[in-house]
Structure formats: structure tokens, C-alpha cells
DNA sequence: CACCGTCTGTACCAAAAGCTACACAGAGGT
DNA sequence: ACCTCTGTGTAGCTTTTGGTACAGACGGTG
């Protein structure tokens, strides 16, 4: 695979010719996959990461080992966190793991800084990416403090389910996502099943009554 | 007060002459103070806010009315949230309240956009401000999910105490800050007093044993 | 088919945090 | 001096969440 895949990505479509050449010379594509993390806390960042295909999961790990997802990075998006570390010369403060079959482009720090200096479109993309991340983190924070676990689980199901209403995730993965434990997820899931909102299977959850789930969330609070 | 106070602020010291003029014509200074919020969720943002003096508190309000501080904005910093809404044309998703005796500069949207286009230093400031915010939110999220309330309270005391080891905050304010209720803060405070870590008074908490508090936090988790 | 690792279901107990209710204490105004 | 408002101290109960322990179910592999 060449960097042309990268150039066709949204953020880079409006680059000037000089910018394109810079990108071609500097960018590197890499194949990633679970379970090895591709970034760890404290690691120094060598450049800006863009997701070409697949998805990255950025998460925190508590001292006791429980995880909690901070946000996902989808194709065409950049790991603003790394970007962050890039501009502030700070160390990366979280873990990043790739979904299966993920391709990531790494644009070395100096190259990206130069692009940022010269290309308006890159400035825009950068600010917008940071903005978006701020909103996501904000939402996450508000969710954590305003909603109960069952509501957050319902939300997770609704948001990540496929169009067919299926979610291919083990309960352990859901627990990691929400920052809780598997047992709790199992317990909450039992209630959801009892209400007829979902059906559970090995590694998959099927939504039977999306409105019911939505109703759970709509009811204010904790 | 004139906008010269604004120009002497860190972010604007390196402006070109044109930028300065733009700033002088466009910026407006305003005095703010509690308890009236100066920004509310859904409000459309008319420009970028910079804190000249005092402090702004950005917080979320849950449906049940409990608050939780997201972050503070100190002098020389900008309300990146507003910035955010400015670039994304999104509505402001949180509440902002000023401490007593706070001066805020409002740079109208079009003016700020023009400054961002033309002035490298403004681009830098913007990205850096967004970056910093991302880190703060990240930390906050990690704290919420990894630490118990008593640890977070200890942390609050240590971080916000004056050099003399005093914190001039009511327990209600601490509760709002942590996203909990006053009673819980009182209960936790009793334990801290029992351990001899702090002394409480009306509207003020004195730290007697900072190491003890720090020890609380150091012990991993939840 | 037997085995084994992974995933799910569930029962029970413990800890943390929220809620309600009320007493008291200090500060400031009349 | 009295009253009121705001802030603090405390008790007891409920709900939510976490932790431990174990049983059973499913799927893949030899």
C-alpha cells in the first residue's frame, strides 16, 4: 500500500502540490491489530497518527487494571492526542489499541509541523479535530457523572449496534468500555433481557426494543 | 479599562501591527462576577473569550441539578470551549460562571477568525489551548473512573489550597466541584479531620498534614 | 466425542455513595 | 439582643456498584 490512500483521505484532499510532496516523502503506513497496544502512556510521540482503515480505541487503565474507553478514532480522523503531545512536547497519557485489520499513517513530527505552518487546510483539520475531541470528552464526562450504569450500557448498545440491531462485543469488552466489571454488565444485561429490550448470545447482543432502551436513557438521572 | 490590558496578555504579545489594530477595533472588555452565569448550554457563541483577570469556571449540570466542574480558565487563557463552538458552529454545551472580580475580553467571531488566518502566534495559541484542555479533560475523566471520592477530595484540597495551606471554599462548592452532594463532603471531611489531616472552619479548610492527604491519593484505587 | 478455553448466568456479601431529616453555630443586619 | 441566613455536623436508611465464587454453556480442536 502506498501513501496515495492517505492523500485521498478527507483532510489531505486540499493540499497544495508542495504539501503533497512533503506528505509523500514523510508519511509511513503501518498495519496494526489487536491485542498489542500501539501507544502507551509516557511514550514519546514521533508524529501525527491518521487512521486510514479500521479503528483505534483510546483508553485509560486504572491502577487496579480496569479499563475505560476515552474515545474511538475512525478512518479519516487523527489521533488528536498524539497531535497534542506533538505540539506541547508532552508524553502520551493513554493507551491506544487497534481493532482488527487497521491501517494507520504516521506523519513524522517535523513534517506535520511544516504542513501545519504552510497549509490552511491542515490548520483547519487540526483545530476541528481537537474541537471534536473536546466535545467527545465533554460528553463522556457528563455521561459518567449524570447517568447510572444501566443507562450508560443502554446508550452503548444503541450507539454501537449495527443497522441490524446487533452488537458483536463480549460482556468483558462492554465492561472495559464503561469502566466497570463483567459481573455488573451481566447483571444489568439480565434486567434488560427481563424487560424484553435485548437478547443475549455468545459474543453478541441483539436489540429487540430500541425504544425501550432509549426510554431508559431519556429518564433523567442518577 | 482599555484593550491595552488585553494586548499585554501572553497570547497577543507577538501580534503584528495589523493584528493589533484588528484587536483594538474588535475586542470588548467586560466585568463579570457571580452568581449569574455568563454562558449557558445551547447559547450561540459570539466570539472567543479570554480571561484578563480573575477566573472562569466551566461546569456541567446534571438533570437532577448537581453540578460538576469541568475545568477552570485562568488569566491569559481562553475559553476553548467557546473557541470550539466558534470553529465548528456548534452551540455551547456547558455553563460558565465567573469568580468574583473577573474581567473577560470578548473577541468577536469574525475578528478572531481573521486573526487566526493571518497570525501564526494566534494559531499556536489556539492549538495549544485546545491541547491543554484535552489534557485537563482527560485527567478529569481518568480521575473520575480511577479514584474514590475521598481521594478526589484530598486531591482537590491539595491542588486548590493556598501556599499557607488554606482553602477558602464552602463544602457545597467542593461538592459541586466533585459532582456530589454536601452531605457526602461533610462525611468525608469528618474522616479527614479524625485522621488529623485537616481542620475545618466556616467557609475555610486548613491543611494540617499534606503528606497524609498525599498518601491517601497515592494508594491506588477504587 | 472428549477436552479445554472462553463466555455467560447468578447468588451473595461488602463497600461506596446518595437521600432525608434535623440540630447547631457563627455572621450580619435590624 | 434578637432574628435570619448560611454553613456545618451527624445519624440512619436506601440504592448502586463492586468483589467473590462458582456453575453451566458454547465452540473449536485433537
Summarize this, please?
The structure is a homodimer of 222-residue chains. The first copy, chain A, is an alpha+beta fold. Chain A has helices spanning 4-7, 17-26, 80-88, 109-118, 120-146, 149-160, 171-178, 182-194, 210-218; strands at 28-32, 37-39, 47-53, 56-61, 67-73, 95-98, 102-108, 166-167, 198-201, 204-207.
Q: Regarding quaternary structure, how should these chains be classified?
A: homodimer
Low-confidence residue ranges of chain A: none
- Mean pLDDT of chain A, to the nearest integer, reads 82
Strand fraction of chain A equals 15-25%
The structure class of chain A reads alpha+beta
Topology:
Two copies of one chain form a homodimer.
Chain A (H helix, E strand, L loop, with lengths): L3 H4 L9 H10 L1 E5 L4 E3 L7 E7 L2 E6 L5 E7 L6 H9 L6 E4 L3 E7 H10 L1 H27 L2 H12 L5 E2 L3 H8 L3 H13 L3 E4 L2 E4 L2 H9 L4
Antiparallel strand pairs in A: 1-7, 2-6, 3-7, 4-5, 4-6, 8-10, 9-10
Helix pairs in contact in A: 2-4, 3-5, 4-5, 6-9, 7-8
The first copy, chain A, binds a DNA duplex (30 and 30 nucleotides) through helix 8.
